[in-house]
Design brief:
289 residues, elongated
Amino acid sequence: MKIKLLLLTLTFALSNSALAINKCDELAAVPGDKDNPQGVKGVAFDDIDRVPAIIACFEALVDEPNNQRFQYQVGRALDQNGNYTHAIKWYKKAAEQGYAYAQNDLGFLYEMARGVERDYQIAASWYRKAAEQGNASAQSNLGLMYYQGHGVQQDDKSAVTWFRKAAEQGDVDAQVYLARMYKDGKGVKQDYKTAIVWYRRAAEQGDYTAQEQLGFLYYKQQDYKTAISWWRKAAKKGSSLALYNLGFMYSNGYGVKEDSSKAIEFLKKAAHFGSPDAKDFLIEIGETW
């Protein structure tokens, strides 16, 4: 009877442990992590249900204290909860084992001075470790460090190299940065056609900054209808710049039939979203918003 009771207790404990592990992955795994168990899609950072995730991941770590995935995931949940000092502790445990996502997120906390004094060199060091493992977000972040000269010697060519690596993996931020480098001719020869290619890739993923910039590039080419189509997409996301530009286009009849009432309608929306240019224009013509 004692042996049976012991076996039943052990089975129950293992069952509870498995539930905790699955719950940790379910509540805090990062999307796209190749180490995620099969069937685990991951959760966007802003969507983490913080307290249940923290509890589930600490329970998972009781049985597997050196599991780098769980270490990272509890750090991620703590980070989302604003417990940056504790998040750093757990990110570091996973990062020191070579976990790329933890290395990237640890670098970000050092860059943003969350739970620790700002240190660009340490941030760049962790970004590089993750970037060299192929982590697209880290590659983009490292590219930005080179572009800004934070923690590394300022170098536009190196920035382009890292932006390109991330952009080719589909990282939206990197696609926008790379497009900007081509538009401005920094680190590469100025090339509007290539800038449009990268802005379009980001815009098609829904990035409104890319949609704004595509509109500008098409406007420069006097392709007003295409410019308007991209500004409309950005305007739907609340872009004050795109709304102002649409007002401008209707006011002047570029790519659309001139319509002052529609122009004012767009300018009022732009002013509502904070556009100082739209506010100034409306004041000049005696309109309110």
